[in-house]
Amino acid sequence: MERAKEGEMTDAKRSEVLQGTLDLMILKTLHALGPQHGFGLARRIEQVSRDVLQLNEGTVYTSLLRLLQQGWIAAEWGTSENNRRAKFYSITARGEKQLAVETENWERISGVVGRVLRLEGES
Amino acid sequence: MGYERIPRPRAFAARVAGLFGPRKRDSDLDEEVQAHLQLLVDRFVAQGMSREDASSAARRQFGNSMRLQEDRREVRTLVSVEDLGRDLRYALRSLGRSRAFAAVAIATLGLGIGASTAIFSVIDNVLLEPFPYKGAARMVFLRIHDSARGEEAGRQGYTSNEILEFAEQNHVFDGIIAASDDLVLYKQREGAEPFDGAHVTPGTFEFFGMPALHGRVMQPADYLPGAPPVFVMRYKTWIERFNRDPGLLNKTFELNGVARTLIGIMPPRFSWYGADVWIPETPGREVATGYAGMPARWFLLGRLKPGVSKAQAAADATVIANHLAKIRPQDYPAHFQMSVKALGDTVVGRFESTLYTILAAVGLLLLIGCANVANLMLARATSREKEFALRAVLGAGRARLLRLLLVESLVLAISGAALGVLIAWGGLKSIVAAMPQDTIPSESVIELNAPVLVFTLVVAVLTAVVFGLAPALQAARRDLNDPLRDSGKGVLGGFRTGRMRDTVVVIEVAVSLTLLVGAGLLMRSFVALRDVHLGLQAEHVLQTQLSLPADRYKTAAQVREFFEPMLARVKTIPGVVDAAESSVLPPYNGADSKIEILGKSHQDEWHAVLQNISEGYFRVLRIPFKTGRAFSEAEINDARKLAVVNETFASTYFHGEDPIGHRVKLGALETLADPTREPWFEIVGVVADVTNNGLQDSVLPEVWVPYTVTGSGDKVLLVRSQQIPMALMNDVRQAVWATDAGVALAFPGALEDRISQQLYAGPRFGFLLMTIFGCLGLILVSVGVYSVLAYATARKTHEIGIRMALGAERSDVVRLVIRAGMRLVTAGVAVGLLVSLLLGRAIEAELSRGVKPYDPETLVGTTLLLVATGALACWIPARRAARVDPMVALRYE
User: Fold this and answer.
1) How far apart are CA B245 and CA B560, in angstroms?
2) CA B174 from centroid of its chain's CA atoms
3) pLDDT grade, residue B483 (50/70/90)?
4) Does A74 contact B at CB distance below 8 Å?
5) Is the dihedral of CA B10, B14, B16, B20 positive or negative?
6) Of A17, B140, B158, B817, which sits most exposed with the smallest number of CB within 10 A?
7) Is residue A87 within 8 angstroms of chain B, CB to CB?
8) What is the pLDDT of residues B377-397, one digit of tens each?
9) Which H/E stretch holds residue B142?
10) Alpha-carbon torsion B341, B344, B347, B350, what sign?
11) Interface of B with A (CB under 8 A)
């Protein structure tokens, strides 16, 4: 609900959960691993969530743009491992704060959802 | 650090910038995407895929890159063309569903924009910037009037000697010119045609500072004695009388018997003194004979030095006038005052206050219109709260909602603006058509005023957009569940309580009532004017002015030798009942004359207006005799010194005594070019009063004498016919030209039309405009009352639901809503009545005699009309409220 109020969702046809989660995952990855380029982020998320999420890697860029506009991440041109020009993204102070809030939200909601699902499972 | 940080406020800026220049950013992102795809391909190849498979697998894994393009633009910009199209379709569909709302909002905007632009354009062109001349604001003329009589009765014509004295002695003008009018006869093959001519003094064209459109203006050399005679022509005359003939320049015309060369045609807006042609003349010191044998009089126009006030100029001119009064005491009243008038006062005069009243009315209407649109928008927003809450819940962002509403508001605003421009354009055309002639300066060209139009458009569009966005702001600010609960809270800061909206409605009602009262009073006044008995029957009378060549018609005998046979000829035309000569066309008076009556002594000066007539005059106009008789044909032909007076003359100077047989001296006849010696006339008859001083003011004492006593003075021909007067025009013209082909017929027409034009056009115009704006106000008020009540009712749906659930009848609900609305209407009516009474004084000057500004019938009538309209406006939302289903209304509690 929080995300909907902020109004950054642009297409009702897409699953809201995935989008919100992707933002959260990117923030978390940047927080944990420091500056990354888009390809690196996609690899990292793929690595962590293999077999669970079918990620369209293009959506990573949509998510990055959105986070940039919120001022939660920053971008800078640099050189990648294989000497290609690449844009590196890093989390900002405000991004860190947002990450904390979102993480807490996520945990609370997933905890609730988990409990509810368990209840149903037992009945 | 080279970080590209985008703080939140800049995110919006970035989006706005994204509207215009997304290209560079796009290429940045393309580069990133390409690099990403390449890395994926490399990776798959390293895993052992073929290059082809790797590339398609990479694309699969990356997802639809076109999709990304759109996502990106969606994030980055407010609107994409595709989205705009979608929003537009949505807006049209949504407005199509509430057609009544859309129509009312568009009409309100359109009326407000159109009416105020049209009226302000008129005011700007007529009152603010009527003259195209250099320093026109400082151009003034002088008027001398008897301290004991009104300023209107003063004179503004001066002898050439007076002109020269003012020009030489003054300390306040940096330029003085003068003009005297002259009917100029232009000789053609068939007969003579008249021009409105003006003799202009040296420096005239330099004074106005306008060059000729074709050819040249007059040079100082053109004024010198012995210079080749020349003249300059007005643009309109060139267009209308000579069909824009380019070969006209440098042609020679025979004007008043003198061969003059046309040296220049002036630009369209130059029309000094309203003349067709301008003829150079250098005024001399001696008193000259001017048009129609009257002493020549010049109209003086001066340009004040910068910084000199009208009062200073009047004081300076008074000193000079006091000196002049000693030289020619007969031209000056014993006690007189000089006043200085602006050039615009020559024509606008009384009309000015009408226009300003209407401007105020229209400005208020624009405000009312905007307030209405704001209220309508808010009312609609309230009724759509749930729709927007639902959209927000389903994930529509604030930007998206804003965009949706923005497009909707813009559709309304632009349609309203388009309608407004149409109304302004059409309105202006009809105003110009309805405008009485000769009430505005002929120099002023009335056209749509672009800056005003833009201003009103911006005001109205802003209103629609700002208030149209209200629900989006509200949806963003509120808890999404709010609209599902009670919605008694405010929407916008300034509108936090309903008091503001209520006040607007009260003001609307008050303004509208004031307008209606004004319109009502002017209407009654107009009706009263139509009821004024003119004292003559103008139907079936043809009138035309006759211009006799001055060189051949100087004496009374010469004039009689033309009129006697001419009148006889006209009377033989089939269809002609009677014909007569006169010196003045009804409904105005003739020359003013000082009078004396034998055997009566008095302190103050006695005056009467004087007319020369032929024998048939009273018969042609059907003016009845009270006592005595008319002149006989023989008495006219013998130029007997007999007089007929009107009832006012008899009652003013004889106080009930029978005036028949008394002798009256008419001083003015001694001063003419063809003077009457010993002008003592014996009164032989008294006729009923005929309007001779306009409809508003009382009839002046009047004297009629045989036209044969002097060769001077205007000559007009009046013909009573059996059919439509203008049908006789050709026959009458032939009869005149058969007698003397050198005589011109000027301004021919039906007398009825002339009277209507002269007397009724002005009041009719004011009354028409006020009525139109009064009705507009009424319409807007209904919209205003309706929109506020609709808004309040929509917000009270739940309350109404509860009331009904608790047992309230539908009639109770209707009563509840109507009572709420009528409370506002009543308050507005009270305020409006008060304002009308206070403003009554302002409008009093425009009312005819017998109509008081607190006319009870008008006040009661307009109040009833307004209350009825208000009740109707209350009834629609009341009926809607009564249809509220308590179950539906309460479901959201």
Assistant:
1) 39
2) 33
3) very low
4) yes
5) positive
6) A17
7) yes
8) 777 776 677 677 777 666 666
9) strand B139-146
10) negative
11) 1-8, 11, 14-15, 28-29, 31-33, 35-36, 38-40, 61-65, 67-68, 71-72, 74-76, 392-400, 476, 480
The end-to-end CA distance of chain A, in Å, is 28
Q: How far B32 CA sits from the closest chain A CA (Å)? A: 7
Pair B192, B742: CB distance under 8 Å: yes
Q: Do B396 and A7 touch (CB under 8 A)?
A: yes
Helix (H) or strand (E) holding B498: none
Residue B653: partners with Cβ closer than 8 Å, 6 or more residues away? B595, B597, B600, B606, B659, B701
Q: Kindly report, residue by residue over A90-120, the tens digit of the pLDDT.
A: 999 988 998 898 888 888 888 888 888 887 5
- Please judge whether B74 and A10 are an interchain contact, meaning their C-beta atoms are less than 8 angstroms apart: yes
User: What residue in A sits closest to B66 (Cα-Cα)?
Assistant: A58
In 3D space, the residue among B291, B187, B275 whose CA is nearest the CA of residue B231 turns out to be: B275
Residues B250-294 have pLDDT tens digits of: 999 988 888 999 999 998 888 888 889 999 998 887 766 666 666
Structure tokens at B150: 């009104």
* A81 in B contact zone (CB under 8 Å): no
* pLDDT tens digits along B683-694: 999 999 988 877
Give the tens place of pLDDT for each residue, B840-850.
776 776 676 67
State whether residue A18 sits within 8 Å of chain B by CB: no
Number of residue pairs across A and B with CB atoms under 8 Å?
108
- By CB atoms closer than 10 A (0-12, 13-18, 19+), residue B787 is buried
Contacts of A67 in chain B (CB under 8 A): none
Least confident of B66-80, B96-110, B226-240, B308-322: B66-80
Q: Dump pLDDT digits (tens) for A14-61.
A: 333 455 678 888 888 899 888 888 888 888 887 776 656 667 777 788
Question: Which residue on chain B is closest to A15 by alpha carbon?
Answer: B395
What's the count of helices (H) and strands (E) in chain A, helices before strands?
A: 5, 3
- The answer to whether the complex's ipTM is over 0.85 is no
In this complex, is the C-beta atom of A70 within 8 Å of any C-beta atom belonging to chain B? yes
Tokens of B273: 């003194």
Two tokens at B475? 């949806």
Nearest by CB to A4, which of B62, B67, B392? Answer: B392
DSSP secondary structure string for all residues of B255-275: ETTEEEEEEEE--TT--GGG-
Q: From A39, A17, A21, A5, select the one nearest B397 (Cα to Cα).
A: A5
Tell me what pLDDT residue B890 has: 67
Task: Among B289-293, B735-739, B740-744, B771-775, name the one with the lowest average pLDDT.
Answer: B289-293
Q: Using 50, 70 and 90 to split pLDDT, how confident is the model at B96? A: confident
Which pLDDT band holds residue B648 (cuts at 50, 70, 90)? very high
Query: Residue B229: is its pLDDT beyond 90?
Result: yes
B21 CA to chain A: closest CA distance, Å?
Answer: 17
Percent over 90 (pLDDT), chain B: 16
**Distance (Å) from the C-alpha of residue B384 to the closest C-alpha of chain A?**
18
Q: Which of B10, B43, B62, B76 to mutate to test the interface with A (most CBs of A within 10 A)?
A: B62
The single-letter DSSP state of residue B698 is P
Does the pLDDT value for residue B5 go beyond 60? no
Chain A residues in contact with B4 (beta carbon < 8 A): 68, 74-76
Using a CB-CB cut-off of 8 Å, the residues of chain B touching A85 are 31, 35
Q: Looking at chain B, which residue has its C-alpha nearest residue A84?
A: B35
pTM reported for the whole predicted model = 0.61
| Pairwise CB contact (< 8 Å): B5 & A92 | yes
Please give the angle made by the CA atoms of B603, B606 and B611, to the nearest 5 degrees.
165
Question: Nearest residue of B to residue A53 by CA position?
Answer: B61
